Amino acid sequence: MNTYNIKRILRTSLIGRSKVYLFLRYYIKQKEIDGVIKKYLGEEIDSARKKHIKKQMLEAMINYRWDFDEYFIFHYEEYNDAKRRSFVPEFDKNIFCDIVNDKKQADIFLDKWTTYEHFKEFFGRDVFNIRQQNDLDTKEFELFVTKHPSFIMKPVFGTRGAGIQVYRTSNVHEAREVLTDLYKNGIKAMILEELIEQDERLAALHKESANTLRVTTIRYDDKVDVIFSYLRMGKGASVIDNASAGGVFGVVNIETGKIYAACDRLGNTFEKHPDSGINLIGFEIPRWNEVKEFVKKAAQVLPKVRYVGWDVAVTPTGCVLIEGNDKGRWSFQIPKQEGFRDEMNAILKRLGKKPLN
């Protein structure tokens, strides 16, 4: 049994939510704590203040199951117990996903190529799979690169945008050399994708990145609901729109398709995009109703995976799927400091599950 499945079993057991387990979790992770404090507060923080914060970060992990960065993004010091409990931390979100999703079907999303094979009709672009170095010598590889000398490379098992690169090559030989180096340096499984031409209104927000939507669905027996969405945008020179990679995200009103709050992963809020200067508050997502119908249709493919966060790009002609996530960060809680616990527990109740408190 691998580490991923061990964590899944522990999370959904009473042991996984016990104070003993959470103390152990803190002990294992505490080497990260100084780096997290530095990221949010900088170098110049006196020792007494730092000691006090560390004590509170321990309390946050033991009492609320918060990770260290959630101490800052959920403003621990500003809120009382009830407000703190209204947030769903990463730990509890993962428990929720494990409860509502069938393990076997959910694991399909761990592998980007397997995801493509199940959702090919939603991708709307060419994808090439590399699992061994010999794949770079095939006729299929030559055909892909000849057709798409510029392409995006994604590690098959990568998360949060890690390792993703755009390559612009002049011929098959150059593409093969570049990818051979990647393979020899540790990326043993990767996919190549045709670059997406995004809707010009979204491209204008940040031209260097594909600015994509995370649209999350919950599937009941007779219907699929969209429960939240946010637009992810790159920042600076980054080709990645992921908030974990330093990007900006704007929370979308499900009914109107308009952004009503925006921030980055550090909690810095934005009225306008910091690079393009385009107003984010009130920005209307192109083809919003089409986007919602698109993800609802995708949610029917794996009926035992009730919860999925879909990454969707809007093109001049419609919607295309980037990938699906059976566990994705609930970053939409950050900009307006709106907890999602009541809504999460209402979903669990509707599915005949116990609330998660």
Describe the structure.
- The chain is α+β, with helices and mostly antiparallel strands and 357 residues long.
- 37% of the residues lie in helices and 18% in strands.
- The protein has helices at residues 3-11, 19-29, 33-41, 47-64, 68-73, 81-86, 90-100, 103-106, 112-118, 120-123, 139-147, 172-184, 200-203, 288-298, 341-350; strands at 127-130, 150-155, 165-168, 190-194, 212-219, 224-233, 248-252, 259-264, 307-315, 318-325.
- The chain has a six-stranded antiparallel β-sheet. Strands 1-4-2-3 form a four-stranded antiparallel β-sheet, sandwiched between helices.
- It is globular.
Question: What brief labels describe this structure?
Answer:
6-stranded antiparallel beta sheet, alpha+beta, globular, Dna Ligase, domain 1, 4-stranded antiparallel beta sheet, 15 helices, 37% helix, D-amino Acid Aminotransferase, Chain A, domain 1
Summary of the model, kept short:
This protein is 37% helix and 18% strand. By secondary structure, the protein is α+β, with helices and mostly antiparallel strands. A six-stranded antiparallel sheet has the order 8-7-6-5-9-10. A four-stranded antiparallel sheet has the order 1-4-2-3, sandwiched between helices.
Low-confidence stretches: none
* Total beta strand runs: 10
Termini separation: 29 Å
Structural class, judged by helices and strands?
alpha+beta
* Helical proportion, percent range: 25-40%
Order of helices and strands: HHHHHHHHHHEHEEHEHEEEEHEEH
**Gyration radius, rounded:** 21 Å
Tell me the CATH topology of the largest domain.
D-amino Acid Aminotransferase, Chain A, domain 1
Report the CATH C-level class of the largest domain: Alpha Beta
Count of helix runs: 15
Biggest β-sheet: strands ordered side by side in the sheet = 8-7-6-5-9-10
Strand percentage lies at 15-25%
Shape: globular
CATH architecture of the largest domain: 2-Layer Sandwich
CATH superfamily of the largest domain: ATP-grasp fold, B domain
